[in-house]
Structures are given as C-alpha cells and as structure tokens.
C-alpha cells in the first residue's frame, strides 16, 4: 500500500524517536489449491496481468477496543475495519477476514496495520497488537514461543466472530509479514493465504548477526521502534497506565535491553546461532506452511538474503510467488514505484491473491510468474520460472595483484595487499542506508549511492576491464578470500559494485564474516555446477577456529543474493576491507582481536582470492 509523503515522513520521525527513547531507557479455494507445487510449474505459461474488480462498499468503518483473552489471561488489543455504506454503516456480513498481527501499535496511522482498499472490496480487516506491544498486555519477546502460541489463538478467534465467514488470509509488511509465516505454520484450517511483504527468513544470518557480527544499524533501531511505539497512547483504554508500565518494565528488565546488551557484550550465548535464534526464524518452519504464499522482497532490503530463500523453501509444497523490487526496507514495505513494467501495485496483487484463495474467484492468480525481479543496470523488472535462476552457471573472477579483476587465475608472483583492521569502515555507504531500513538513505548523501569515498580511504578495490557486452548475474554469491592477520581473528567485508562509464561505483550487494566463524557445513551449503556458491556457516562456539597470526587462511564469505546486469562499457568491481559498520560490529569479547593490527589479502597462484558469480545468459531476460 503506497503511503503519502506526509505519512512516510511521520514514519521516519517515529523510527528516530523510538531509537532515542531506547537510548534514554538504557468463499475459499478448494483443497487442491493447497497441494504441492500448484502454480509453481516451471513449464507453465506465466504472465502478469492487471487485476481489477468493482468495490463492494464505498467506505469503511472501524470497531476498536476489542479484546482477545489468551490462555494465560493476557488480553490482546484488537480492532476490525468493516465494509460500510456511504453513511458509514457497516454492511451486513459475514466477510472473509484479513488478519494483521503487529508489534508497531496498530492505532498509529503512519504504520498501517489495516488496508482500506481490501476492506472496500469486501473483506473485514482485523488488526491485533501482539503480546507486550501497543495496547496489548504482557511482555514482548519478539516472535518467541508464547507469542507464536498467541498467533494460533488469534486466528481461531478471528474465524469465529460474527463478521467473519471463517476464511482468513494474512497481510502486512516487515514485523507483520513475519507473524504471518509463523501463523501459517500452525496450519489452522481457517488460514487460506499469506501475503508477506519484506519478511525475515533466518533471524541470525539475515539480520541480527550477519557474518557473526552484531547488526548495530538495525537491531537497536527496531527494538527501540517497538518499545517507543508501544508507549504512545493513541487509543483510549482504561488499562493504559498498567499496560504501559508492563511494557516499559519488560523492555528494561526482561527482553529488549537485556538482549541488546548481551549481544553487544558477547554474553549469554547470544553471539552464537542457537535455539533462541532458530525459534525466531521462519525458515525453520517452512515445511509446515501449506497455504498459498506470496513473498515480496527487496534487492537492498534488510531481509535481502531471506526473502528468496523463503520462496525456495516453500515452492515444493505450497503455491508460492516471489516479487523482488529495487527496494530498501521502507520502500519495499510500500512497493514503491509500482505499477511498473506491467507489474501491478501491491494492493492490486494482494486483492488478486485473496480473491483467489479466500473468495474462490477463478482469477488465475496462480498463473502470474513464479519469480519477478528488478534487475540493477537493466533498470526494469524481469521474470523467471524459478529462483535461483534455472540458467545460472558459476563464473569465477579473480582478485589480481595489479588491482584488476579477471577471469584468468593469478600467477605465482602476484602481490598481496594490506588493510588496517578497524571496525568502523562504511559509515557512509549504501550498506549503511540499507541496514538502517532506508531511514538514513533518505538524507540522499552522495556516498549512499556512490562507494568511491570508501574505496579511496579504507577499501581495497579490484576492477574488471569494461564489459564487451552486457553481463548478467542473478542469485547468491560467494567470495573465497585468502587472508592473514597480525592477530588471531579478523573481520572481512566484500562489496560487489557496478562502475559506470563516469566512474560512479554503485554497490549492489555485500557480505561480511568474522574469520574465526569460517567453518562451513558442506551438506547445507549451496553448490552451482559443483562449486560452492552459498556457504552455510555454523556460527557455533564449537565451530570457531582462531587464525594463526601471519598464516594465509581461506575464508568463504557469503555475499547476499542480488540481480545485476553490468552494461556494456561498465565494469565489475570487488572491494574488500576489515569491516562494514553499522551493518556489523564484533561483540566486545571479539572486538580487540578484530580491531587491532593488519589484514593481508592475497592474490597469487597458491592463494587465489576470488568471487564466484551466478552468471545468466542475457537472452534469459524476459519482460513481465
């Protein structure tokens, strides 16, 4: 749903205010629609179309102050928007229900938890504050076991209300997308469809500890947002003082502040992948999700890694579609720029999806392309039958001693290069904009779209010759870097950029890794053409392998998936350095080892540092 500029500004203010507050605190489809792989056949003819139908109501009316009493007596705050006539009177139901469960306070208009467009088309939209947020009681625990149990009770409650016909779909962005996936895993018979906009896949790898380092850019901002918005009294409630006190006490002593502190300090096992993070990772539950699921993602989203992986994990047993736009998190939440290239706006797509699977209308929603992605460089959308792209093949590019990037392997005597190990490279970069959800990017500083400043000061660059023809790669990327350090650990950053004819260096993706976390599980890593292209690092205490000072060591670095066409005459560039702040900062327990000394990047025949790209024929680019 596209927001007006004023609402976007309000959201930005809310995000910043929340961070400051934290600092101060310390007809349903038949059963065949849910069968394996429906709508995901790679040989089927697929095309986008613009779906429209007349509104069923000229207006909407809201019922607020609803309470859902849970098994432990905690009450969740809810409201429902219903189709209404021109006088504002609710139309007689019952209606299929759209459910949104949010941690951002459903009553704040700048972060919509209800969709009037869908309501006017004949849906009831139920919005619920999850436990410990908004006007709901209890203590927030960010997708924890109690909260996930609540999702089942909420959808059961929604299916039984007088305004409900018992058919429920879920909708929403970010937090509200993640709750949908956990809800679907319960397999409640009333749940018929998911429309998840910019959802997370793997809590540890996608966002909180990418590469084994604390995401200082987003996690405090996000937890501050939930905390701050939960303390804003927007809707009257007699229990408001008690609820607000419970929220604040929980934030200070039970969840938000303790979790952030433990992660930053490297205490309590928070800096290792563990049951705590797996419990909060939708990818761990995808085998239980059977309902049709539409996933929307962004090429520079905070969940850039997880969104295509969610689609991939679902496609074999649930009707699934994937749309990835040129978005960071805020823009992706709204589907900024759509309709474009025959791809409809998100409201129209959601209506098509819910009409098919909640109302049972034969609108052929299952026939839209399985995968639709924006392509950097091409600057338009393209479709594919699957993700990763079925025509991808591995192509290796070597970091050469003369600072070039080449398909030819290096010779024995090529020189290495040395960088300072320091933890705050990247303060002004596309990465910084990305990992603050696009908030800082709104300032439009040149360095948020051009990486040349970082390259000149702190990063080592390796650049190809101008492309003789367009060069297309699409999917996950792996950098295999030979490094040594003067210490027993190091952090490494890899950026993949496109350099235009005028010299501007556009970052397209990046990856970070703490060297001691380099161990990979071969069985869980992705291979392409027999070569590993997406390493799966264990990130456990037992898997840690300290460096031996001065000894060259191979680091397989996961670079998050992207889709890029390097246009003829432009160049491919790989940059490396020791950090990417605020995307990643080592916990205090690791900081000394990673912040002092020098790191050497090798480029010789015995230590051939390289990047493996998933190259796709340009002829495979199709129009939506």
Mind sketching the topology for me?
Blueprint: H1 5-25, E1 59-69, E2 75-84, E3 95-102, H2 116-120, E4 124-129, H3 145-159, E5 164-173, H4 175-185, E6 191-197, H5 203-208, H6 219-229, H7 240-253, H8 256-265, H9 275-278, E7 293-298, H10 306-314, E8 320-325, H11 329-334, H12 346-357, E9 371-375, E10 380-384, E11 393-399, E12 405-406, E13 417-420, H13 430-435, H14 452-457, E14 460-463, E15 471-485, E16 491-499, E17 505-514, E18 526-528, E19 531-534, E20 553-566, E21 571-577, H15 588-595, E22 598-601, E23 603-604, E24 607-608, E25 610-616
Parallel strand pairs: 3-4, 3-5, 5-6, 6-7, 7-8, 8-9
Antiparallel strand pairs: 1-2, 2-4, 9-10, 11-12, 11-25, 13-22, 14-21, 15-20, 15-22, 15-25, 16-17, 16-21, 18-19, 23-24
- CATH topological fold name of the largest domain: Rossmann fold
Major β-sheet annotation: 10 strands, mixed
**Poorly predicted tracts of residues:** 1-37
Strand content: 25-35%
Global mean pLDDT: 89
The domain count comes to 2
What is the CATH architecture assignment of the largest domain? 3-Layer(aba) Sandwich
State the end-to-end CA separation. 21 Å
The global form is globular
- Count helical runs: 15
CATH homologous superfamily annotation of the largest domain: Alpha/Beta hydrolase fold, catalytic domain
- CATH class label of the largest domain: Alpha Beta
Rg for CA atoms:
24 Å
Q: Strand pairing plus helix content: what structural class?
A: alpha+beta
Tally the beta strands.
25
Please give the share of residues in helix: 10-25%
